[in-house]
Amino acid sequence: MRVQTPPIETLPLFPELDRLLLELLRGLTPEDWQRPTLARQWTVKDVAAHLLDGNLRTLSMLRDGYAGEAPEDFSYAGLVDYLNGLNADWVRALRRLSPVVLVELLAQSGPEYCAYLATLDPWAPAAWAVGWAGETESLNWFHIARDYTEKWHHQQQIRAAVGQTEALMMPALLQPFLATIMRGLPHAYRAVPAPEGTRVQVRIGTAAGGVWQLLKTASAWQLAPAEAAPAAEIVLSPDVAWRLFTKGMSPAEARPQVQLSGEERLAEAALALVAVMG
Question: Which residue among 2, 57, 212, 238 is the one 20 to 30 A from 227 at the CA level?
Fold first, then answer.
């Protein structure tokens, strides 16, 4: 029997996330805008441009029904290639915009984006499934929570580049981010063998973190209440967790910074969780 986990309410958090972003961007120096980030070859300005793309693409494709360039291949790999192409084209084009114009467009589009999300029935099927959680169909509340993780981690990439990460580490903003990402744990463990009844625990080791347990059933791994001692546990700091699970740090880089106990093979598999497309 599949254990049902409750939905994660993130919709009320988007305006605060946008407020913090605009406050941050308006205080950057010209040098700050060109600093490198964890997002591969993207600068701070490039990541801000990508956040604007998220607003405008959602309004155009989902609210207005205008795809522009629709994907030809709807497999996971095909969608990753499609999104990577869109992202690269957009960021390259927006390098001609000034930071002032970019901030103005973010300020204008953010409220419209939030207003659109508020029109969605949280229990209706989403237009896009959360592929990194292994789903082929997702509910809107999970789609919205996934968008929250996107906005959270890209803003945190900017903050890490300029040394101002603390604002997003408050429990009210961090915990929903972590809880959403942990919905991908069963998919990350899908090929990990273990006897039925085995439990693995992931602990984000601060008051702003949390504890999640995976339970191996006869057919699959699934999230379950932490009701019994685990066979293995991995403990991470929030700073390692957000970087690792959004591809800002490799499993090899994270390994010396985490604590493993119990059956190491089972605990270490959590390092493979990736909660972004691409």
Answer: 238
